Amino acid sequence: MSELLLVMVLGLIGPMLAAPRRFGVPVAVGELLAGVVFGESGLKIIDVNQPNLHLLSQIGFALVMMVTASHINIKAISKSKVVGVAARDVLSVAMVAAAVAGAAVWMTGQGQNFGLYTVILASSSAAVVLPIFAAGAESKEPSLERFITQVTLADLTAIVALPIVGGSGDWVRVGEGALAVTAAAIGIYLLLKWAQHSGAWKRTRKFSALHGLGVELRLSLILLLGLIILAQSFNVTIMIAGFGLGLAIAANGMPRRLAKQLFAVSEGLFSPIFFVLLGAGINVSAMAGSPSLIGLALLLGLGAIAAHLAPVLLGSKPLLAVASSAQLGVPAAAVSIGLANHSMSAGQAAAVMLAALITLAATAIAAAAKK
């Protein structure tokens, strides 16, 4: 219990570092840094293998992916007039990302991580980017609409691809697990759609609000745990469980009360545990002592920025292209998967997260310059 208390206290560092308006950083970055200082790289106080903390961290991982997916509006993307152009931008980024990933594999000799590096390099973070440019999105400026659609598509594509490229190598088993969880998520979507049309979902929400029972949240967590068990039975990452459920709920319209409840549970408890333990599990000192790993971090960070500049050749604005390189959720998920299945060392994990910080810094500069 004392370690859980420590992790929760350290989790407060995230909001503290995010508070300054001018130099604030994403909350998750502060939590990661706190984990680095008190984990394997620093004071070695946090034991990431402690069973209770590991369990809470895994639930946090699934919840983070669920909340991320719940903000993706697939209907809006499909109806967007610039979705074709945005998809072309995503493809151009992916092509350059594959070339940079090839260089990263040559540098590290980790051929099994080629797909992982490609997905990381090509990804964007809608959770980081969209709040920054939300005001511009409301103005329907064509370049911003294209940019936001591109970032959302890149984030969605990367999260779907990550469980496949980051799998244990048993592609048949991974494929079966992904299909099983996807089918279950579609079933949940259809069930929720029926409940909405029949009025059962509305009555449940009204009853829950009237009596202060939080029934929507309870049902959501039950469904999430069910999908996690299904994913684990096939030995596939639980991120697909959280992401699939988030999409299923979002596709039917996320109730405002449920969104607030999920945010409170995730950001108030489980998300800080996940990010602090993730930071505690990576080994910055191992990276600092290895020129090749430092080179890998710089290659992945600067390479991601270069890859996202590819759409400039297709008419995208340079500052927006740089901003689209922001990465956080996908690298964090990749590190979590890589450390779990031992396809990534603690030093490589540190390099991946340092690369993500480079892209976040570039995005912050681009956003400030655009203002």
Describe what this molecule looks like in 3D.
With 371 residues, the protein is an all-alpha fold. Helix content is 78%, strand content 0%. It has 20 helices and no strands. The longest helix has 28 residues, at 171-198.
Topology:
Elements: H1 2-11, H2 13-18, H3 27-38, H4 51-70, H5 74-79, H6 83-108, H7 114-122, H8 126-132, H9 134-138, H10 142-165, H11 171-198, H12 200-211, H13 215-233, H14 239-251, H15 256-281, H16 284-288, H17 291-308, H18 318-323, H19 329-340, H20 346-370
Helix pairs in contact: 1-15, 3-15, 4-14, 4-15, 6-7, 6-10, 6-17, 7-10, 7-17, 10-19, 11-13, 11-14, 13-14, 17-20, 19-20
Short précis:
The chain is mainly alpha-helical. 78% of the residues lie in helices and 0% in strands.
Largest sheet: none
Give the total of beta strands: 0
Look at the helices and sheets and give the structural class. Answer: mainly alpha
* Stretches with pLDDT under 50, minimum 5 residues: none
Radius of gyration: 20 Å
Shape: globular
**Please, how many helices?**
20
State the distance separating the first and last CA atoms.
Answer: 46 Å
In sequence order, what are the helices and strands, one letter per element? HHHHHHHHHHHHHHHHHHHH
Strand content: under 5%
Q: For the residues shown, what is the average pLDDT?
A: 83
Helix content: over 70%
Features:
371 residues, mainly alpha, globular
